[in-house]
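Lab manual, section 2.4: Encoding a predicted structure.

Procedure: take the sequence of the chain (245 residues), apply the prediction step described in section 2.3, and record the output as structure tokens. A sample record is shown.
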Amino acid sequence: MKNADSEKIVEPYKGRRMYHAPKLIGLWHKNQGYIPSEGDLRLMGIRNYEKHPEILESYWDSSTLYAAEGDKIKVILPYDNSGDKELTYTAEKSFADYIDIKRLSYPGLILSGSNINLIDFLGNSEFGLLEGREVYTLKKSDLLLNEGLTEKQAMENSLLLTKLGHPNHVNSEFARPIEEVEEIISGTFKLGKDLYGRDKMMEQLVSDWNSVLNTWCVNGIGAGASSNANTDIDGDYGRFAFVKF
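Recorded output:
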């Protein structure tokens, strides 16, 4: 499908995430495309809804990552706003551990010149090693989670705003213009109301258990355009998006 803004092709990769992630990351490292972040997926869906409603109506696994320990949540942004879409250090190592921790072998997976032992890097829930300018720590107790948000609540939800790259919530190299963040949120609520009569949307779904790493799944607008961090890399119902360069 064509992206009206950039004429790039978005391809869905359906099925077990463990099978698709290595291939897609390998292509990413070969500069053949990338897995979009949650923010980019949402903006793409809003801006292309008339010609390509399937982007916003479908669910997608993004490259925005999630980890949790106790009351703490970490959001790991996959790339900055420079336009080259190069994987950030922590996202790259996290994706690699996401695969390797299952003790599966993917000889086709190419990582960018690192000799780090991936299990040593994240090991058994080494939450504290997830650090860097691309990593943002929030507290569950400070957030409105696991229930639908009003548009006003969405505009104030620190977790959502961090993932969308609001300049008041992320470092400058990861920020998008405030107007784009507002476009994503207001556009989602307008379409949700017009199409499905929804007043509450964009629920942030997280569990109580600790997690080394999950991808943020963006659900379709008919399901409230929620964000789900409870996805399992070994699950059978993945749907990675991939944008070719």
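Check your result against the sample. Residues 10-244 form one domain.
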